[in-house]
Structure formats: C-alpha cells, structure tokens
Amino acid sequence: MIRYLLFFKYKDKKGSQDLTEEVPEDLIGEVMSHLSFKDIIFGEFIRKGSFTHLMKADIEFKDGRRYKVSVKLLKDTEDFKVDEREEKCLLDEARYMGTLPKHDNVVTMLGALTEESPVCLVFEFCPYGNLKGHLLAVKGWFERGSHSGVQKEAMYQQLRQYCMDVALGMAFLEEMKCVHRQLSARNVYVANGKKCKISELGASSAVLEDEEYEVRTKGRLPIRWMALESIQDCVYNTKTDVWSFGIVLWEIFNFGDEPYPEMTVKDVIYELQQGYRMPSSDYSSGDMYSLMEQCWQEDQLNRPSFIEITEILENNICGKEVRAGTSNSKSSNRDGSHPTETVSAL
Prior knowledge:
α4 (149-175) packs antiparallel against α6 (238-253), α4 runs antiparallel to α9 (306-317) and α6 (238-253) runs antiparallel to α8 (286-295). A five-stranded antiparallel beta sheet has the order 3-4-5-7-6, with helices on one face. Strands 1-2 form a two-stranded antiparallel sheet. The two termini are 39 Å apart. It is 34% helix and 15% strand. It is globular, with a radius of gyration of 20 Å. The protein is α+β, with helices and mostly antiparallel strands.
C-alpha cells in the first residue's frame, strides 16, 4: 500500500478563513500507518468527472484526531461500472504523483489506498474550490455594487497573482519534464492564502519524461483549451501546455467565463485554423494580453517557456499598472507569496 507525504489538520474555528494546518512531520508516519478506508468520512462532491469523483472528506481516528482532506476515487454507479483500465489509470496516477517533489503551486497527494476497494487517492484540501468557480464568485461580487479604486486595484493585483501561481506550478512541471495536457481554470484549485495549485495530473502519468506525446485513444477532448497542433495532430508537449496557459490567463481576466463564448466547438476549430485569437479582456493590461498572444503563436517554437513566462509575469506584477488610471501596485515575490492588500471576495 502506498502511504506518504503530508496531511492537513482541520481547524474548526468560527470565522477562520484558513481551514487547515500542516501536521507536524513527526506525526506523518503515525497518521499514514493507521489510515484505512473505514476511517474516511465522505462529504459532498467537489467535482464529478466522467471516470472519477473528487469528494470532501474527513479522516477521524479513535483518539479524536480529525483531518480535512479531499479524496479522488473511481466513479462506480449502476449506470457506470469501472473496469481494469480505469483502475490502472488511477493506480498509475498514484505512482506518478509519488515521484513528484512537493511544490507550493501543485496540489499535494497526501497518500493513496491501493490495497483496499475502492482504490482512492487522498489529496490536501483546498477550501476555495477550483479557480473557475472561485472566479465566477468574484465576478458576482464585482458586479453587485460599486467599489473603491483601492478595492479594484487589490482585486486586479490578486488576479495577477493567480497568473503567477499557475505559471510557477507549470514551470515546476516543465522542469520535471511533465506535460499536463488538461490545464484549465477548473483544474487549478485555490488553497489557503488564496494560493493557486495545479491539479488533475492523471493525464500526465503517461507523458512523464517524454519530449512529445501522441494521443491515439478516443475520448472527450477539451478543445477550447487545446493548441491547434493538439487538435489537428493529437500531439502534446510543454509548448501545447503553454497555449493552454494562455487560455487560463484569459479565463482569469474574464472571471471564469468559458473561452470562445458563443462559439460551438466546430466553430472554434475552424476559426483557429483561419488565424483567429480571442480579444483582450476589459480587465487585463496590454502587457498581459501580449503574453496571451505569445502563448497562442501558431508556431510553437515562437511560444515562451514557462520559465520565461514567470519572468515576464514577474516584470508585469512588480510595479506595472493593470489598467489606465490605477497605480500603487504592490510587488510580489518570485516564490509565489501573495500581496498583503486584498479584498474579501478574493
């Protein structure tokens, strides 16, 4: 049975925004050695997928210790029965995630139960959900009333920080020679401190250490986030992830809206082949949109690497104005630490 890494203890304090805290390292081995499926108390669904579900859960032990986590397990209903292929994919993901060093901008797999049924992967709990849902909530707050210039600037600064968080996570995966293949705002989760973390790396388990990966299996594809060469030739590599990152930037500055609004998937493919790219958002700076355009270059050799993207964003975040008429942007550290001034909705 695979058991390793970290757990996060639940802090049930009324009014607390940070819902979890890290367990001291000297307790990790003890926690994992006692973990079994019967200790998991499942809560509500975080995400329902085609083959797997992600659920909120508590792990409770006889001595009263209680840990808040999220658990990924195979979908198994009367209408859908898992087979050996789906189970192998989840096991491969467990082994693959176990090879990755911990990074602040990648969701940590805390452990896995592989010798019991159902097989499940245990991850750190991100209390603010996925980035897409979080942005949609922020959009509702933003559209409900008038806000001061300071509040707006704090919001724009936080949006930029989300971009940096995702870039730092992807730069780490790039260094690990990992191709994500499914990068989107819904596959990024927002943890304590509003820190964004890359998630859903299951599709990457088949791509580790490959320079280029050709998909030959059929299935539902996230066309709106895919690079043109991925759509046309089913080829994935780090530079196709860069294209997807450009789409995530667009999602962030459009508060979680679906890319290519009012277009069908068929229209998206046709328009991309004709050279179309989405226009800038009212809320992104010219520099930020220029970065999106670089990510969407037809020739992937002209797209920046994620290391280069973090450098571009660092220059954009530190002292750059988000919109005309705003100023006093607060600088942000390269390690992903967040600006000190924020607004409650973010």
